[in-house]
Amino acid sequence: MKERILTCIVCPRGCEIAVDLSEDGSVTGVRGNACPRGSAYAERECTHPERTVTTTVRCADGGVASVRTRTPVPRDAVFAVMAAVADVTAPATLSVGDIVIADVAGTGVDLIATENRRPTK
To answer: Among the residues of 22-117, which ranges form H helices?
Structure first.
């Protein structure tokens, strides 16, 4: 059996959580969480880790716009998402929630604008 120590990021408490893992990587126990959300977070983080990717993209007018994935993507896909972002040029005009890349890197998740933007030139 293996133990993994995590700091919970679900709420501001930042509980230190100990996760017991079997030889096949499945979770056999969770300790140290102050709430059920911490237990769920620890189990997800050990079995199917995900990340929300937040970055910027180039725009057609030469500026940049802030974007993020609509929902978290598998942690293994983060570099593929960033490679897709590097290859795209967004329109100069964007509104919050506009899709910049649909199904980014084949993840099933859209990359969306997080700011209202108008051309700078």
So the answer is: 36-47, 78-86
